[in-house]
Amino acid sequence: MKKWRFALTERWLTYLAMAVMFSVACALLSQWQFSRNAQTEAKHNLVSANFHAAVVPLSKIVPTTKSYSAANVWRKVSVVGVYDPAKQLLVRDRTYGANPGFEVLTPLRLSDGRYFIIDRGWLPVGTTQDRPDVVPAPPKGIIHVTAWLQGNEAVLPGRVAPGGEISEVNLPTVGRTLAGSTYTAAYGLLRTESPAPPTRPVRTLAPVIDPGPYLSYAIQWILFALFSFTALGWALRQERRARDAEDPEEIARAAERERRASLRDPTDSQIEDDQLGVGQSSMGPADPRAVGAVIHDRDLRERLTARYGTAIVPRVKTQRARQSSPGSPDDANPDDANPGDADHDAADTLIDAG
User: Fold this and answer.
1) Is the backbone of residue 313 left (phi > 0), alpha (psi -120 to 50) or beta?
2) Is 317 helix (H, G, I), strand (E, B) or coil?
3) Where are the beta strands (DSSP E) in 97-224?
4) Which long-range contacts (CB under 8 A, 24 or more apart) does 214-217 make?
5) pLDDT tens sequence across 103-158
6) Which of 119, 150, 253, 275 has its CA 20 to 30 A from that of 324?
7) pTM of the model
């Protein structure tokens, strides 16, 4: 344990505190993502249950013009009335799949005089104008309608629309165009109408709830928290290895690690570095010829033994044979040799791991 006492210094305790705070933040963010995923899943379950539930009369779920519960979204309701095509409106910027277009809002006047707004479906943008080419007329007379219940949409600031169009299904805005009380908290997406007209807008697609990336994000935050402690442990281990670099046991362990590393196949980047003579050879520490490592003669054996252990016994050979001819200045008068020749000779001396 004495070798690990440095971990109790102020510097490493500060690192530990930072890792703990980072992990706590990651845990909170992970819980937040888990809660968002749970909310999305609950919404999906609610919509799925409502979408497949039996049809109920509108008055049973929405008894007044201002009553509506978000828990009833996509419930199937039945209502009877007469369409008022003169007050029909188009909702701009609605897509069907990836295609832009409009949705058709038609007021349905009930027997008590109140209006319930029916979204009768989607129409594409016209071929020559920014409106549908044709808006199919609603059926006349008393109509039996079933629809999926939807909540009122808020007005988005800055959005405008020409006459006969609106930017959102904002029911109070629609109600101001009608001479009567209007349901302002909910409207219906048309499912069926009887009698059916010969043509009608494209019916609304079934609801699709995107689960979102919340679950994967939550798992990622957990992994980030674990990584902080993994990184701290790795840094502690590297610090201890550096402090024990002269310890015979650590020297032996380092030699064993390098020996195992030399048995692994080199990566493409290591092979490229070997060919260019950059960095440590991927073929293992005992073969620096691949990277052109330069080793000076003085105390060569002692330094190699201290670094690699006694299991590695290198031989020294000269990579480049001298080409000087007999009688050259270097041979004739060694004292006159260039002082740089010693370094030149050392640069020619390489380890041969044999």
Assistant:
1) beta
2) strand
3) 99-109, 115-124, 142-151, 165-166, 186-194
4) 214/33, 214/34, 214/36, 214/37, 214/40, 215/33, 215/34, 215/37, 217/30, 217/33
5) 999 999 999 999 999 999 999 998 888 889 899 999 999 999 999 999 999 988 88
6) 275
7) 0.61
